[in-house]
Amino acid sequence: xxxxxxxxRSGAGMVDRVDSVSRLNRQEGVGQAYCxxxxxxxxxxxxxxxxxxxxxxxxxxxxxxxxxxxPAELKELAEVxxxxxxxxxxxxxxxxxxxxxxxxxxxxxxxxxxxxxxSGGDAKPGSEPPGRGxxxxxxxxxxxxxxxxxxxxxxxxxxxxxxxxxWDLTKPGGAGLAPTLDLTKVEAERAGAVA
Length: 195
Known about the structure:
Layout: H1 4-8, H2 14-24, H3 39-42, H4 48-59, E1 63-66, H5 71-78, H6 85-95, H7 110-113, E2 134-139, E3 145-148, H8 153-158, H9 183-194
Antiparallel strand pairs: 1-2, 2-3
């Protein structure tokens, strides 16, 4: 279930429904994966009981996969999932952007500098986020397993995972070249989708 925050906030009783699914799907031989950006997403409901139930979703997770997080966010998650100091340092380093000087940070390969295959064709020196594709897999209290995700050639070419493409000034459809967004139309479409 991607964007868990949206499901939990969608209406009264949704936290109870997701909580129920997380507890009873085992009887059907079904597991589930929940994706959320932060623990703050799970604390965003008004009812303290809903907040506690949402936190329980993480507490009962057999596997927790963590991408780069800032220290404050990781501290909140650490209330539920145990992290070693080395894991904390690793995960927080993935969320820390390079310095303003493009020469800082890990060196890029020649292929990345030239915008080659590994970079998706749009790399610029210093532009690669430090945690792109890096994840830490935690199973219970066992040591975390750091992994690096690599997109397939088809995924890179299609840019299906590039959620920043509208902000790229160098490409057609990027910021500055994109058509003006009519917010009244967007709100009307949302209202129609909700109704």
